[in-house]
Amino acid sequence: MNTRALGTTGPRVSVLGLGCMGMSDLYGPADRAESLATLHAALDAGMTLFDTGDFYGMGDNELLLREAFSGIPRERFVLSVKFGALRDPRGGWLGIDGRPAAVKNFLAYSLRRLGTDYVDVYRIARVDPAVPIEETVGAIAELVKAGAVRHIGLSEAGAETLRRAQAVHPICDLQIEYSLISRGIEAGILPAARELGVAITAYGVLSRGLLSGHWTKERGLERSDFRRISPRFMGGNLERNLALVEALRAIAQEKGTTVAALAIAWVLSRGEAIVPLIGARRRERLAEALGALALTLSPEDLARIERVVPAGAAAGDRYPAPMMAHLDSERGGAHGA
Ligand SMILES: NC(=O)c1ccc[n+]([C@@H]2O[C@H](COP(=O)([O-])OP(=O)(O)OC[C@H]3O[C@@H](n4cnc5c(N)ncnc54)[C@H](OP(=O)(O)O)[C@@H]3O)[C@@H](O)[C@H]2O)c1
After folding, report:
1. Is the C-beta atom of 55 inside 6 A of ligand 1?
2. pLDDT confidence of residue 332
3. pTM
4. From the CA of 209, how far away is ligand 1's center (Å)?
């Protein structure tokens, strides 16, 4: 698989990374054996970047990765780990903790669960409004010096935070939602990242399954499924968004591909410094996503896609209002479109 650089200071990674969240949390039940098989299939396909969070299934996702990678040389995979989210025993969200002592404590637990002595890219999941980003990143920089972390990333941070963090220590990538229907970063965050030599690891490239071509109005959602509270999956918004998917399906069919591959290829076409994280948790879905690598979108294809799904076409924000309010990336005018 081709590779892309994670910014000017980070490692080279496979052009598509695997996001492992749905294997342990937030999208309803997952099959552990199939998750392990999917992780192995990803490695076999040449994927090297694997994204997790210590709060995905309260450490369960890290334990899953440990099991999947046991016996595999450590240099064959790049682990991107998010920390900081505080949860209650029922999975509820209590806030974020970016205090230096908390950062070190979170990492100590992650290393043990992952069965490794270093994390390749470490990042706080959300900017902690109560702790200056310089302090949080400064604490990770100490962990870099100690050899327990290789590189520092950010998640859902805005351009100003990115600049402040970069002044403390090189930032290799910003993990942030980016897809055909989540284009808010194009206004200010993407240009700032480019200027600073920071890569984008794009999540939600299928808008959490909405843009996959497999979503239907009839699909039921478990209580714990994030999409139950996502404005884009609700009522009239869902109907309008699925109409966009049908317009994409017509283009995909003409090109002999799937909606999912087309949506992923579109993100890949947006620049060399963008690495999409694929949320596949079954081998079949992974294979479909990898179809994007064989797809070349011509300027005509891109213009046609833009006509049927222009920026801002989605109905509903990408998070419910209280969660949008916690996104540093949404301050200063980028309103989730
Ligand atoms: N930094 C952050 O704030 C943040 C937030 C969210 C996620 N992330 C990271 O980004 C990763 C990807 O995000 P995401 O899971 O929301 O991404 P996504 O790729 O937009 O959505 C994944 C969903 O799409 C469905 N899907 C259908 N066809 C697919 C296909 N061919 N390939 C992949 N998925 C397909 C999957 O469904 P089924 O499995 O049900 O078939 C799954 O529910 C996460 O795993 C996590 O590591 C980061």
Report:
1. no
2. 63
3. 0.97
4. 6
CA dist list (Å): 324 to 19, 316, 331, 337: 21, 12, 9, 12
* 71 CB-contact burial (10 Å; exposed 0-12 / middle 13-18 / buried 19+): exposed
**Residue 319 among the catalytic residues:** no
Ligand 1 centroid to Cα of residue 206, in Å, is: 7
Q: Which stretches of the chain drop beneath a pLDDT of 70?
A: 332-337
Q: Is 324 exposed, middle or buried (0-12, 13-18, 19+ CB in 10 A)?
A: middle
Read off the pLDDT of residues 140-190 as tens digits, 9 standing for 90 and up: 999 999 999 999 999 999 999 999 999 999 999 999 999 999 999 999 999
Q: What are the structure tokens assigned to 266, written together?
A: 């579109």
State residue 222's pLDDT score.
87
Q: Which of 27, 56, 178, 319 is catalytic?
A: 56
Q: What is the pLDDT of residue 335?
A: 41
3-state SS assignment for residue 51: strand
Ligand 1 contact via 155 beta carbon (within 6 Å): yes
Q: Which two tokens stand for residue 114?
A: 């992952």
Atom 31 (ligand 1) nearest CA: 285
Residue 289 Cβ < 6 Å to ligand 1: yes
Strands 149-155 and 12-14: unpaired
